[in-house]
Specification:
Length: 172
Amino acid sequence: MTELILIIVQVIAALGVVISVVYLGMQINQQNKITKAQFGHSLTQRQYDRFFNTTKDSEFSEFLAKDWAADDLTHTDRWRINHFVMMCLVDLFDVYDKVQEGFVDESHLNSRINALRLGVMKSDAGKGVWNYMKRNRSKEFNEWFEFEVYERELEVDPNQQKRTEGMNIIRE
């Protein structure tokens, strides 16, 4: 009789361990989803903050609207352009790494690479900053980036293209 009670207790204890492991797995899965959502939210908020600050800062908007290939740019303009491009690249590096680690959805990366593909990285300033910054990245990233920015053809909706043709914000 004592042996039967001991076996029943061991079975119950084993079931308790199995249930605890399953519950812990569910908690970890839920925490991963929450963490992923928080990363995604912070990346989206960071991008929205930049957009909002650009729209309310007319001086900065005028700077972004300049022809970045013009001969009459001041040293300050060139410095600002280089740092703006660096900021965009550092943001892209961060998002790329988070996508690779599975922390955020690829849509965060796509929105950033699509913006860079429009012309910032095709300017002389963009190419110069890229050639400097790419030393800090892996060969895999560099190949991905150069394909996405310099080789991939844009699949643009003709209606969207007509709406953006007159914009000077980003020039090739």
